[in-house]
Design goal:
The complex is a heterotrimer. Chain A contains 3 helices and 5 strands; from the N terminus they run ααβββββα. Chain A is of the alpha+beta class. Chain A has a domain of 89 residues: OB fold (Dihydrolipoamide Acetyltransferase, E2P) (Beta Barrel), CATH 2.40.50.140. A 5-stranded mixed barrel of chain A has the order 1-2-3-5-4. Chain A is elongated, with a radius of gyration of 29 Å. The mean pLDDT of chain A is 84. Chain B has a single domain, classed as Fumarate Reductase Cytochrome B subunit, CATH 1.20.950. In chain B, 78% of the residues lie in helices and 2% in strands. In chain B, helix 2 packs antiparallel against helix 8 and helix 3 packs across helix 8. Chain B starts with a helix and ends with a helix. The model of chain B has no long low-confidence stretch (mean pLDDT 89). Chain C is an alpha+beta fold. Chain C has 4 helices and 6 strands; from the N terminus they run H-H-E-E-E-E-E-E-H-H. A 5-stranded mixed beta barrel of chain C has the order 1-3-4-6-5. The N and C termini of chain C lie far apart (47 Å). The mean pLDDT of chain C is 81. Classes of the chains: A alpha+beta, B mainly alpha, C alpha+beta. Chains in contact: A-B, A-C, B-C. The interface between B and C is large, with 56 and 54 residues.
Chain lengths: 170, 241, 154
């Protein structure tokens, strides 16, 4: 039965394509740079995404109005941030945040225009991969079992009437 | 009646499988790529698109098992028994996956993999009941008796279903309350689209899987019966003078 | 199919039946609904007697807006937890989970050991059942969700 394998090739191909597209979007829109990388890079006008934790006792400004200054820490590195943008919904001290903005080379501060939530994408990937792979595996095993059964029935000539009267009850 | 319905709908199982694949592909695409992140959970909300469909499909599967078992005890139709056995196995798979994906979702949001929350406990009890059901079927030698005992077990275990459903409303839980309730729908349209697609896909997939599995069980029983008859015939002809 | 000797099979059947009967019994008769309470509320904590001070409990409530204060050394925070009727102060050492936020639910594990402050060793964030993108939230949309205080004492 080539039909079974063709169908599964299409499904697996589609899933791989989807995984590739998701990975591409993740790299483009969600991946973040570490503070050390940003500090050492030549400053560009392109906005970058950085991830770090808001240091305790440094958050000040009017969060509701979208004006704030604080320090971001990431391991041993500390970076002062000046934020001006939409109201900060989710900020607090000791929280890991993603900030979008540029590094001001002269003052060594990060000018942020927007925030995002930390992307725990590995959890999402784990949940999807686990579900998809186990369901596909079970489905494939099932369709293979059907194939084997059909072959056995053919060999056994199950559909032919038996001399045994028991066989007549369907 | 149910027997004829099962035989009739079996012919169209390919359509269910095809529709499930289309729905799930669209759901995966919108869920992973074309839907926004949540304001509070961020990207993690995407785990909901697999966790929630898995969880309520497993309760749907258990409902099929529950009503099928009542029907089996009443009519003693072996095909219905096969269907019950099939949905129990698939229900166990969906329940286990729902528990694991829930655990993956809980770690970054609640800050724990597991906690003794009423919803989590009652849902794990479902997995225990199903494990017992499948073990009972495997271990009782006489398939008819095994089927009868298992059906009784499935019916008794049915009390877990309303407990699961309303555990988040009746008791204090860490798990959030129902998003669909008399209060209205607490999910915005953008997030509802992938959730609906994945849910419909999961129901269709479950229907397809049950049909295939029922067919497998039915055919292998037929084969075994035939082999048994052949064996007894040859045995008889050899031993008789 | 696993082929087991008959004796083992009987044992296995008994074990599986006991397993299920036990779990069902736990659900139905084990006072699952009444006695096994997942968390207590701040009002119930306030009513604790000195004998229960050292007992490890979970407390659920809403983090009072404007009550959150962090300390840099050692890293930790203090905040207040309320159920609408009573409010208790909570002290925690460590880094709280990302979804922990003022005005949202939290379940804290620890002891009400001196009858003054709740010393927590673990914070779990209790999120609500509404889901919407950031743009809608910023536009001020509110979805119909269960009143948080009602989820504390059904």
């Amino acid at each position: 039965m080539t039909g079974l394998y063709t169908r599964w090739a299409i499904i697996v191909g589609g899933l791989l394509l989807l995984a590739m597209m998701t990975n591409q979007q993740y790299q483009r829109d969600l991946s973040t740079l570490s503070l050390a990388t940003v500090l050492n890079s030549p400053g560009t006008s392109e906005p970058v995404r950085i991830q770090g934790m808001v240091k305790s006792g440094t958050l000040s400004g009017d969060v509701e109005q979208g004006q704030a200054t604080f320090e971001l820490i990431d391991g041993p590195t500390t970076l002062p941030v000046e934020y001006a943008g939409p109201p900060l919904e989710n900020i607090r001290e000791l929280k890991t945040m993603v900030l979008i903005g540029q590094l001001d080379k002269a003052t060594k501060t990060f000018k942020a225009q927007d925030t995002a939530l930390i992307n725990n994408f590995e959890f999402v990937a784990a949940a999807y991969l686990l579900t998809v792979i186990s369901l596909c595996w079970v489905l494939f095993a099932m369709s293979q079992r059907v194939m084997v059964l059909f072959k056995e029935i053919k060999d056994e000539k199950l559909y032919e009437p038996e001399s045994d009267p028991l066989a007549k009850q369907e | 009646m149910l027997n004829r319905f099962i035989r009739y709908i079996q012919r169209y199982k390919g359509w269910f499988g095809g529709a499930a694949v289309i729905c799930l592909f669209l759901g995966l695409y919108t869920g992973l790529l074309a839907s926004p992140a949540d304001y509070y959970q961020g990207e993690l909300v995407r785990i909901m698109y697999v966790h929630v469909p898995l969880a309520h499909t497993s309760t749907l599967a258990y409902s099929v098992l529950f009503f099928g078992s009542i029907w089996y005890l009443w009519k003693r139709d072996p095909l219905v028994d096969n269907m019950c056995q099939a949905s129990a196995g698939i229900c166990a798979l969906f329940t286990a996956l729902a528990l694991i994906t829930g655990s993956i979702w809980a770690k970054p949001t609640w800050n724990t993999w597991w906690t003794w929350d009423p919803r989590l406990v009652s849902f794990s009890v479902l997995l225990l009941i199903l494990g017992g059901y499948l073990m009972l079927r495997k271990l009782v030698d006489d398939p008819e008796r095994g089927g009868r005992y298992a059906a009784i077990l499935a019916i008794v275990g049915g009390i877990d279903l309303p407990i699961i459903k309303f555990s988040v409303e009746w008791w204090r839980t860490l798990h959030q309350p129902m998003s669909f309730s008399t209060r209205g729908v607490a999910i915005s349209d953008d997030i509802l689209v992938p959730l609906t697609l994945m849910s419909i896909g999961a129901w269709l997939l479950f229907a397809y899987m049950v049909m295939v599995r029922t067919q497998i069980l039915y055919l292998s029983n037929l084969l075994q019966a035939k082999k048994g008859r052949l064996f007894s015939q040859t045995h008889f002809s050899q031993t008789s003078p | 199919m696993i082929l087991l000797p008959n004796k083992n099979k009987k044992v296995a059947i008994i074990v599986s039946i006991l397993l299920i009967a036990g779990s069902l019994g736990y659900l139905a008769l084990g006072n699952f609904g009444e006695n096994i309470v997942y968390f207590v509320t701040p009002s119930e904590v306030k009513a604790f007697t000195p004998e229960t001070y050292t007992k490890k409990v979970r407390v659920g409530g809403m983090v009072v807006k404007g009550s959150l204060k962090t300390q840099p050394e050692p890293v930790g925070l203090t905040f207040e937890l309320t159920d609408g009727a009573a409010t208790i102060p909570v002290a925690f050492q460590g880094i709280p989970p990302d979804l922990f936020k003022e005005g949202q639910g939290a379940v804290v594990e620890g002891q009400w050991n001196d009858g003054q402050t709740f010393r927590s060793t673990m914070i779990m964030a209790k999120h609500s059942e509404d889901y919407m993108p950031m743009e809608l939230k910023r536009a001020g949309v509110e979805l119909p969700k269960k009143d948080f205080m009602k989820t504390l004492s059904p």
